[in-house]
């Protein structure tokens, strides 16, 4: 198989790829070059960049468009279907992605509860045993979005001795097994927020969830509570967040995702002592690298043998 | 009862004390003033400062010397026994102290694994999805010291999907129930260290453990692993740590406790990008404040009724 990796950021894993995909031809090309080499590829491995009609129309040999990770915002699945190309992503839970994102959510929750930024100022002032912080043990958290990431967050918060309420668009039977105190539908999020000292956003970004967490949500949060976003920047209404901080509706916010990545250098949120920001590193870990590679290697292997790949977003339609 | 709080840092909780100890007389005095007012006190509540012969000899009305928290380094229990005074501490687990310290241990583990300090530099450079970090899920941690704090750390690490090996001076039957992969005696710590990607020190400081974690321990740690200390500064040999960092024996260290608190303003560890320091805030939380106060209120209540207090360090001897 000819495997084309779309984008130079893959370059740093080249030696790993050569081990994981033995016997296959590998090219790593810049996004700008894809149109010139897509006809060579049987398989294209995609970062979160646009892939659709324009490239597919030149991709005469393509069998599989494989997203590197779970998020397929850039992958035009319908166009893949029209061209008879499998469109796949990598499941998040169990491959290290959801687990890593869940850990970064916990890290943000702790950094906020312990007022980490303030602690560093105190340290430089030579003050110990301060600032007083808040433990998560025996408090209530609200997890919004009970997909793979939400599931991993819930498990870990229960392990810290928290009570957890969930919010999800659909009610699923399996939620009963998760140990949640209660699950609310999205429309009743206000009831869930009122109970929680920490709120964690794990919603998939789509047309329904863009700007979902808005001013009304902040008004329903407990005084002194914290918001953490590990989903996608735009599920949170930025103006509503700024207003909530200005009006002290919440005590702080932690975000591994932003509306614009990277943000403008002068973005005031970067300097806000009540705000913790990390550069979208939740899923960028040793475990997810290994887990994603292993999963993709299996899909390459399957496609090379003429089998349907796993975690396929259009196999059903291609079969018809 | 006349309750004397030893030290001005208690002042900020005065209004809480007035609620929690109704009907009792409360004084909060500076350490320098104690000798002038100790004769007034039936009960003295102690921070981690020296309390022994000198003050006891003037404490004609004293019934109970109650440590505020678990650590009794400053409390001369034998002297209390000689003067017929109950010496008590507050148990750590279940009152929010051990739980809070365990959470700060996890926070340090995550900050190190995700290279938090570097992430903040990357952010300011406008770089996202970097640095690549390490998840705790499916890795092995070594917890050194399986007292209350160690127990709480173990529980939480298992909740993150880690494997945990323990190290403890004595082998206790109860360890079998904890879900540990293995428990080693202190002398075999080297075997435990070799397996672990994170090592967490939770040892009580005493004559046997001072400087316990030394150069040999660092040489037994896995390359690229991390050390976290939430016990007391001196259980860790500072020179050995500096050498381990210099020689890249480990990837980083996180400490909520130091050898000198606060450290000198020019302490190079404060600036080291591989070192995370917090100002001994692990146990300084809403939960432990409430938990410790509740526990002490119960002891005051018991002593006022002529009953033995709980978590008493010399009741057995006083009975004789």
Structure, described:
The structure is a homodimer of 320-residue chains. Chain A has 320 residues and is α/β, with parallel strands linked by helices. Chain A starts with a strand and ends with a helix. Chain A is elongated, with a radius of gyration of 22 Å. In chain A, the strands form 2 sheets. In chain A, strands 8-7-6-9-10-11-12 form a 7-stranded parallel beta sheet, sandwiched between helices. In chain A, strands 2-1-3-4-5 form a 5-stranded parallel beta sheet. Chain A has 2 domains: 126 residues, Rossmann fold, CATH 3.40.50.720; 181 residues, Rossmann fold (3-Layer(aba) Sandwich). Chain A is built from 13 helices and 12 strands. In chain A, helix 1 links the parallel strand 1 and strand 2. The model of chain A has no long low-confidence stretch (mean pLDDT 96). At the A-B interface, helix 5, helix 6, helix 7 and helix 12 of A face helix 5, helix 6, helix 7 and helix 11 of B.
Please describe the structure with a list of short key phrases separated by commas or semicolons:
homodimer, 320 residues, Rossmann fold, 5-stranded parallel β-sheet
| Tally of contiguous helical segments of chain A | 13
Number of strands of chain A: 12
Nearest-integer average pLDDT of chain A: 96
Beta-strand portion of chain A reads 15-25%
CATH architecture of the largest domain in chain A: 3-Layer(aba) Sandwich
- State the helicity of chain A in percent bands: 25-40%
Structural class by SSE content of chain A: alpha/beta
Oligomer: homodimer
CATH superfamily of the largest domain in chain A: NAD(P)-binding Rossmann-like Domain
Query: What is the spatial order of strands in the main beta sheet of chain A?
Result: 8-7-6-9-10-11-12
CATH class bucket of the largest domain in chain A: Alpha Beta
SSE succession of chain A = EHEHEHEHEHHEHEEHEHEHEHEHH
Biggest beta sheet attributes of chain A: 7 strands, parallel
Major interchain interface with per-chain residue totals: A-B, 51 and 51 residues
Q: Return the CATH topology of the largest domain in chain A.
A: Rossmann fold
